């Protein structure tokens, strides 16, 4: 009898130690199914798992800090307010896409465009090839300009650009042309319908138009030769008669048209 009583006492002590939370022999599985378990703190808060408790205590500053639900809410509210950004009322919210979720950008294939620059790069044949050489070498040329009947004059300068229709842009221009003197000019109007010429220099000055200075010299009895210098000039191909290098003394100019 004595041995059986001692064994039952030992068994009861072992089972009570397994249900004691502070004991080293605490058995959590047995405590879950036992009706004799006594909770040490009856007012303790319930958590879903140990990870939730650990997260809350770390937010408060560690397990050394007392658990305070109100202080925990204040800390979380302060962190969330720092993350929120003020969005203006007039701006609608937009969806955020990852780079691979965004719309596909359509890149229009570039077409080969033909223009005056590509034509000059490809080069010309015949007389235009000589003009291209003079343009690249920056040599001065002389362009003879026609009028309705005959040659009006010529233009000397450096070719900047030209096309196959002989339209050209010339820089550092010196233009020379010939005209009849006013007293010998051809005028088929009736003398009573003619209007006397007036000086419009003031009007042009108000409009901001500055005319180049011209030099006039007499040639014979009925003609005058007029010369003026321009920074640049555009010549239409229909007015071009001949394009040559600017002749110098003792050289024979070569023509391109």
TrEMBL record:
InterPro entries: Lsm11, Lsm11_M, LSM_dom_sf, Sm_dom_euk/arc. One of its GO terms (biological process) is mRNA 3'-end processing by stem-loop binding and cleavage. Transmembrane segments: none annotated. Residues 7-18 have a biased composition (Low complexity). Residues 133-245 form the Sm domain. Residues 1-21 are annotated as: Disordered. CDD domains: LSm11_M. One of its GO terms (cellular component) is U7 snRNP. One of its GO terms (molecular function) is U7 snRNA binding. This is Sm domain-containing protein.
């Amino acid at each position: 009898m004595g041995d059986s009583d001692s064994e039952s006492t030992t068994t009861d002590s072992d089972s009570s130690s397994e249900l004691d939370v502070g004991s080293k022999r605490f058995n959590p599985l047995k405590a879950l199914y036992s009706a004799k378990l006594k909770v040490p703190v009856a007012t303790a808060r319930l958590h879903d798992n140990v990870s939730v408790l650990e997260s809350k205590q770390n937010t408060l500053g560690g397990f050394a800090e007392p658990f305070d639900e109100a202080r925990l809410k204040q800390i979380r509210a302060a962190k969330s307010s720092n993350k929120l950004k003020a969005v203006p009322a007039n701006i609608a919210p937009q969806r955020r896409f990852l780079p691979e979720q965004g719309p596909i950008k359509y890149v229009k294939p570039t077409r080969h465009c033909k223009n005056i620059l590509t034509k000059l790069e490809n080069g010309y044949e015949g007389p235009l090839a000589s003009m291209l050489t003079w343009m690249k070498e920056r040599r001065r040329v002389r362009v003879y300009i026609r009028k309705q009947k005959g040659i009006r004059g010529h233009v000397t300068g450096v070719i900047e650009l030209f096309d196959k229709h002989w339209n050209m842009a010339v820089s550092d221009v010196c233009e020379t042309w010939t005209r009849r003197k006013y007293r010998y000019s051809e005028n088929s109007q009736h003398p009573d319908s003619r209007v006397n010429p007036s000086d419009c220099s003031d009007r042009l000055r108000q409009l901001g138009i500055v005319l180049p200075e011209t030099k006039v010299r007499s040639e014979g009895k009925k003609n005058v030769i007029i010369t003026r210098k321009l920074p640049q000039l555009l010549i239409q191909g229909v007015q071009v008669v001949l394009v040559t290098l600017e002749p110098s003394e003792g050289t024979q100019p070569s023509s391109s048209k």
